[in-house]
Amino acid sequence: MIVQKKYNPIKLRLSKLLLKNNADIATRKVKACSIENAKKIGVAFVVKNPQELEQVKKILKELNSLGKNTIGLGYIPEKKPHDFYLSEKTCNFFCDKELDWLLRPNIIAAAEFQNHEFDILIDLGSYAYHPMKYIIYNSKATFKIGWLIENGPFDFMMDIDYKKGIEYYFSQIMHYLTILK
Q: Is the separation of the CB atoms in 94 and 131 below 8 Å?
């Protein structure tokens, strides 16, 4: 199970309340999309160490090798990220110091990711973290994929044990996206 970061309970409660109200207003056209037909793919993730970042980079590289326009957005659940994140240019990151009072990302890259009309949005387990939950709920992606979560914002959910890891989870997503017509 993914460990949830502890946030200020008052801020978190207020932010969740506003998220539910705004999610009802946000409308999008849901459309299943195969990997073959996808042109734009968004990947949402959380990284806490260099090994996790390497796994995500491998996934982004695989999607790019298929000729897909792939954009990654990562959340670093720390106030001051380590230097190894800063040298990474294949995706955008934000950290705790870039959240507003309601725990929403307050950077242009996050807003652009949220407003981008991806054919497929793949969540690599970041939904457990409130700032990413906000982005995923409000994303304009037409087909959202994530781990099985009750009342989640995903159109396609995978019931896979977290202990099997992100790479196994991603391989299963690719398997089903290949089958999808």
A: yes
